[in-house]
Prior knowledge:
Elements: E1 10-12, E2 15-18, E3 21-22, H1 23-30, E4 34-38, H2 39-52, E5 57-61, H3 68-76, E6 80-83, H4 86-94, E7 102-104, H5 111-120, E8 123-126, H6 131-138, E9 142-146, H7 172-184, E10 188-193, H8 204-218, E11 226-228, H9 246-254, E12 262-265, H10 269-272, E13 276-288, E14 291-296, H11 305-309, E15 316-317, E16 327-332, E17 341-348, E18 356-359, E19 380-385, E20 388-393, H12 398-401
Parallel strand pairs: 4-19, 5-6, 5-12, 6-7, 7-8, 8-9, 9-10, 10-11, 11-12, 14-16
Antiparallel strand pairs: 1-2, 2-3, 4-13, 13-14, 13-18, 15-18, 16-17, 19-20
Amino acid sequence: MLDLLPETARIEDGGLAIGGVPATRLADEFGTPVVVYCERTIRAQVRAYREAAPGALIVYGTKAFANVALLRLLADEGVGADVSTLGELAFALAAEVPGERIVFHGNNKSAEELSAAAEAGALVVLDAPGEAEAAAAAGVRRVLVRLTPGVEAVTHRSIRTAHEESKFGLAPDAAEREVGRARELGLEVEGVHVHVGSQLGRTDESVLALERVLAFLERLDWKPRVLDFGGGLGVRHNREEQLPSVAEFVRPLAERVPNGVSLILEPGRSLVGRAGVTLYRVGTVKDSGGVTYAAIDGGMSDNPRPQLYGARYEAVLANRADELPSGVYRIAGKHCESGDVLIEAAELPEPQPGDVLAVPATGAYTLALGSGYNGVPRPAVVLVADGSARLVRRREAVADLLRFEV
């Protein structure tokens, strides 16, 4: 189980500790649910990308989890931000990420978003026919053109982004026309963007996509300065998943980039996914039809991935981490949905009310996809390092849910 948890996870005095801080102390001090991020794990992932692709610009896929403190930590490592909305741009700017390290995406950018991207000095990814005109009118100067290479990634259908029916990007002929139009308008077309999908577990489709991009470039009378290959590398959520390392995933791509062309990579999940652990408090424990349920004080409002993507997680009782499993338990959320099940079959010591349940690999696309369903306030977020913990996102209160009522 420790290999699913952050690098700093240890079993100390019978309990789980992260970043040198006991999980039970975190649960007591900050309440539950709480999402705990390990600073050392994030920094180690950045170094892994730097070593795998020397000289590449690394920009964090902010949609994995937008948080000013995390963005500042990443910016301290020289990492930029990949944003796709006005709100995500606001997070990056609040974290003082320099404009030259911001890449602005989006399949339906508004005039307001394009103007904000221009003001920030961001690199804008043209995603649709005619967007060059809108970008030029908004004052954008630097652009990439997103190519859809017609590659089916081996991942959940909802997070494939390079297949022929994708809502993102342009087919080769349309991309060629957009490159030409952008250049006519005086935009600095720095290069081409491509993204295969998310939670990728192999390199084959990414290499194929890159080969198709290079074939596309051969037909143009223009040589790009930049190739942005997106992100997509997955993280392990359970012990059965086997995924390539950063080096195994990135190096086959970096080695194929032509000389004189700069590489941009946009990792999100693989930077922060393993770094995050969600702590819950166990409440009701009961048998139902041969299944023993352990209910927690969160669920689909802070992590809807099991419902959206069939994601399978594992768990450990943080306050009894040295005990052997005694059975298989179904971890249910507190929401009024039969489908609000976080883990179908968790091998655990017999859960008791008050136990602290730790769920690994919840640093990406969990709270970011969360909601206020059932009027359940969103949890706090804490960053841990070297035995200390600091709050980086406060827990919502019920009063916060009523702020927008009129």
